[in-house]
Design brief:
homodimer, 159 residues, Four Helix Bundle (Hemerythrin (Met), subunit A), metal-binding (chains A, B)
């Protein structure tokens, strides 16, 4: 599980660097399909990972962040780094005995739901990969080569 | 690992069913970003999963399939089912002792490369999720709601 998180974080960093070579106008332009602009999609990925993992850590639901507070690369990188610091201890401590623990999740619009920890951690993993797939289409729309989605040849399994 | 494969296979089936409500012209139209058309992308997902897992099973490199032989939903479903039958015993037998086994991979255009089994199995998993993200953008292009990418609420963790 950890390797797939490390993959996501490495790919996310590569996309942040990719964004540095794209105008703010392109980054903020509403795209068809997906949650919105390129920058909003990256913000959404960070927010969703942070919210769910905070829940698994037993923390109270974080206050809903406002995209406008993070709508440039400097602020988005800081937001990602801050969230990352909070959630990594949990990811590195993950083990199979945690798979069947139950998270009770409720929000104002839904009734209370129960999820297994193993379900949530995979949901978070695939959520990022799915949205990165959307970025790869939009990058071609603005004439740029996307970041490779390959797991292989990233050095993730060298040790 | 198995749960994520089951997720991919369920999502793939949902997309097959989704395709039934789309014209062949739309399914075969070349899209921007990604490997090609919607149908070609699904073909590519099946082919890549089958080729890599066959390698992990110690089988010789399968003969490169020709997309034109599978370019409608009936043939693509049959192709997916046939590949699925061959690879599932390996996926269900997967265990952590196989993580560090080495696959030597060579093809006419590349030098011989070594990969850990754990690297390949995650590569195959993320490969499908990434391309499904691309389908979700294209589905909006043709005015249709995409298949949900959520891991949660699919019944995958009910037992």
């Amino acid at each position: 599980m950890l390797k797939l998180f490390e993959y996501n974080w490495q790919v996310r960093k590569d996309w942040f660097d990719w964004c540095d070579s794209v105008t703010e106008k392109e980054l903020l332009e509403k795209r068809r399909g997906g949650p919105g602009s390129i920058l909003y999609t990256l913000f959404h990925i960070i927010d969703v990972e942070y919210s769910w993992i905070s829940g698994l850590q037993g923390k109270p639901e974080p206050q809903e962040p406002t995209f406008e507070d993070y709508a440039n690369m400097k602020k988005l990188r800081e937001y990602s780094a801050r969230c990352h610091e909070e959630i990594t201890p949990f990811i590195y401590a993950w083990n199979s005995s945690m798979e069947t623990r139950i998270l009770e999740d409720g929000n104002p619009t839904n009734k209370l739901e129960s999820f297994k920890y193993g379900e949530i951690i995979r949901h978070v993993l695939t959520h990022e990969i799915h949205h990165i797939g959307q970025l790869s289409v939009w990058s071609r729309e603005i004439g740029k080569q996307p970041i490779t989605a390959n797991v292989i040849r990233r050095g993730l399994f060298d040790c």
